[in-house]
Amino acid sequence: MNETKITLIFNSAxxxxxxxxxxxxxxxxSEILSGSVFAxxxxxxxxxxxxxxxxxxxxxxxxxxxGILAVVNSFLMLVTIFTVVGTSTSILRLIPEHITKYSxxxxxxxxxxxxxxxxxxxxxxxxxxxxxxxxLADKVFSKPHLSFFFALASGFVIFKSLMxxxxxxxxxxxxxxxxxxxxxxxxxxxxSILLATTFLFRHPNNPVYAQLAAFVVTAMVGVFIMDRAFKxxxxxxxxxxxxxxxxxxxxxxxxxxxxxxxxxIAQTGVIILGMFRTESEVGHYFIAVRLATMAAYVLFAxxxxxxxxxxxxxxxxxxxxxFHVAKKSSKLIFWTTTPILLVLIVLGKPILAFFFGESFxxxxxxxxxxxxxxxxxxxSGPTNNFLDMIGYxxxxxxxxxxxxxxxxxxxxxxxxxxxxxxxxxxxxxxxxFWNTCTLIYIKMKFGRTIGYVPLVRWN
Length: 459
Known about the structure:
Layout: H1 2-24, H2 27-61, H3 63-84, H4 87-101, H5 104-131, H6 133-140, H7 147-154, H8 157-172, H9 176-200, H10 206-231, H11 245-276, H12 279-292, H13 296-315, H14 319-356, H15 364-380, H16 383-389, H17 393-418, H18 420-446
């Protein structure tokens, strides 16, 4: 028996070594694989910390506290989409572009102008929501007691906005390890503050306070890192190419639309549940979705490094290499996400019971619906990044807008009657719809696809 175990371990190690060697032998893909390591580790650690945080909130503060925290987070995510105005994406292009064409000082000027604009817009919109918190809680959510949380969160809009901007700006400077740290920092700060407040003085609102404080910590650290990183590189004789705010916004606004549509697909269920259902039901739904979307962290890690390679190969006219790398990225996504999804299907109930308590076992069917949507996401590969990087971003924008419209309509139609089941079914349909439409478009346009399922030929 022991010899058999040793043989199996030895064979598994050889298989793993062979797979790694095979991936690394492909120069184009090895850049993505090696570069994804930091991003993937950071996302896994961040996901683990976020999951641990959810466990603490569920165990020590109850499902209602989880629900309130989910609503506050969704509120801030929605507001900051319009305060950041797509600049968190456009800054990824502007910083390296100005460094390459002009100088580090020129890129620094672009960053500072963008940062100042985001801060001013955040203060303005945060003030509006502060005074309108009562109306929002009473008229939209029909829960007047939430007005305190909306008013409180409004004061932290500026910190959430600067955090989002700076996390992406770090990527623009190609600081991979710093980017990984910045991804982990919000979850690390949240769990640290929550644990301290939980054991020092217990208060029902501790989870919300800890989350808002984590945004402050991450935003300030991001500002410090970016300022120091730029100032260490600037030269007195640097050439500065002026760029107007209008030019920055002309690039950022189309990206705002895509970002807002992604938000609607991911968060509309939480918001509409908050309007029609109790905080406890929102909390149960939030936990189910958080578990089901664990695999999405792998997808994000691969996409973050694959996207620039897609652009490079496409604009070099290397179409065969482009689809080869895209297909390999899809294979990597499939083989790293599918085991996670299978574990959730097989062991979902024990996981929910052990980590969150018996009261959360009932959301297992909800989690399974979202898992099916995530599986379609996994087998489709990096569809949105593929189209964005090869100049077909308007095509994807139309697909994602249509998907978001379907998402909102289905949520409004189903949630009042079916609650969390309606919200979960909607997110499953939305994920399947936009991924399928994108794959069909790529197939029709190029005659081949980037999706991957073992033993199935899609080309």
